[in-house]
Amino acid sequence: MADKTIIVEQIGSPIRREASQRQTLVGLGLNKIRRRSTLEDTPAVRGMIERVKHLVRIVDAK
User: Fold this and answer.
1) What angle do CA 57, 28, 7 make, to 5 degrees?
2) Which of 9, 11, 25, 57 is buried deepest, with most CB atoms within 10 A?
3) CATH code at 14?
4) 37 within 8 A of 60, measured Cβ to Cβ
5) How far apart are CA 37 and CA 7, in angstroms?
6) Model pTM?
């Protein structure tokens, strides 16, 4: 399970969103539209993605 990764791309702007959603994007390593971040596929990361699913998309899951 340690080598499973997930690539997440930001597709929406955090402007006029709740502070918690902005902080979640920063926690995922995202801060600009079209920016991508490679993360370990864990339940915690999946939960963060679920919180901001309208602002991000999963590009590739290995």
Assistant:
1) 45
2) 25
3) 3.30.1390.20
4) no
5) 6
6) 0.89
Q: How far is CA 20 from its chain centroid?
A: 13
How many folded domains does the chain comprise?
A: 1
Q: Which two tokens stand for residue 28?
A: 């995922």
Q: How far apart are CA 2 and CA 41, in angstroms?
A: 8
* DSSP class of 2: T
Boundaries of domain holding 10: 5-61
Q: What is the pLDDT of residues 10-19, one digit of tens each?
A: 999 999 999 9
- For tokens 């690539």, name the residue: 7
8 Å CB contact between 44 and 2:
no
